[in-house]
Amino acid sequence: MRPCIFLVAVLWIWCCGLPISCSAQKIYAAGRGLMAKSLESAAEVIDLAGGNSDRSRPKKLLYLGTAVYDNPQSAAIDTANYAALGCSISALNVSWIDPTNYELDTAFEEVDIILIAGGNTLFAVDRWTKLGIDNWIRDAVLERNAVVAGGSAGFISLCGGGHSDSMKPESYKNPVGPFLNPDEKVRDIIDRSWEYIRVPGLNLIEGALCCPHYDTIQNNNVSRANDFSNMIRRHSGEYGIAVDEWAALAIDGDSYRVVSRANHTGSVGPNGEFVPGSSGKPGIWTLSVDSSNGNIERKLVPPVGKVSDIIHPPRWIAEDQMVMIARAQNPDDGKPAAWTKQGSRNYRPYHIAIVLAFGALAGTIVSLYWRIKRLPAHAYEELSFVDANGNDSWEDPEE
């Protein structure tokens, strides 16, 4: 009889649309990549994964460096503190190589921590979606209780969408080089003339429109906080969550904790107000549009609480049309990244310049020779007039 009662109860809850249990996902989302890979954060992520109490095997960490195009130098730096704390490190390199099912199965098998690199969010999420890696990540986090951690692009990729610098030329897999822009000042102008765009994420932090680096101004000289407010106005159906560079949102099921590094600056003033220019302490904010007047409502996230209190499903989502342009400028074309050709962006093809110079000199010499041999020595020459009778002396008839 009891099993029948239990079954009826489950069916009643399901039919009423009430959740049977909250998600058990574990997420560590930092406002900056440097924050996510710091020693303190590494220890906090490992604790979120259950700590190192199980001495039978080390924590298995899978590093996804797709956003930095699997640069081995970035991988070594990003995982160094995790390795120092006893994690077993592996990396899945898929920026221009399609993995086999065996490689995917091996990479995600018994994984405890997935660490996502900062970099170009749009390229990474698109690449994972194309290869089906997004489903492997979701399965590891939602079904097998793995922790997923990341900062900057690693944070945005976990959300429903994000305020991204994925149109920043220097973040492209093969950025514009000096052969087309021989003047470094020109290249610098190109690198700075970009706009923030809304990019899609994996939606593990369901429905959230996220903004990392909230307290900073990047090299396009645009305040991240001001621009995110404008984005929220354009995408008023979504709710924003903004994280300062030295803050992180640690999620365990439906509970969260705000991580704030006391030895760094942020956007939280002494009385809990927003202060621009990183003149306060690090913190996290929620943003939404007041439908009555169109103003931005910005609220400081309490130190601890329920995820459902600060993150809400969107009323609607408006895709950013600039995403299509960003994809065209930084295509998933199967070509290796610029880092495989070390210094390629700063490489100056002097040998080509020398060949062109010699070609120009040779052309000048040939031109001068032709002028000397083929053209008269003076700027004028005497003309011989011939009359109708064939005489070469001709008089003006008017004289």
UniProtKB/TrEMBL annotation:
* InterPro entries in the cross-refs: Class_I_gatase-like, Peptidase_S51
Q: What does the sequence similarity comment in the record state about its family?
A: Belongs to the peptidase S51 family.
User: Looking at the record's lineage, which domain of life comes first?
Assistant: Eukaryota
Gene3D superfamilies listed in its UniProt record = 3.40.50.880
Membrane-crossing segments per the record: 350-370
Q: Provide a Gene Ontology MF annotation, just one.
A: serine-type peptidase activity
Q: Which UniProt keywords apply?
A: Hydrolase, Membrane, Protease, Serine protease, Signal, Transmembrane, Transmembrane helix
Task: Using the record, list the residue span of the signal peptide; answer none if the entry has no such feature.
Answer: 1-24
Q: Which protein, by its recorded name, is this?
A: Folate gamma-glutamyl hydrolase
A GO BP entry is: proteolysis
What lineage, starting at the top, does this entry show? Eukaryota, Sar, Stramenopiles, Ochrophyta, Bacillariophyta
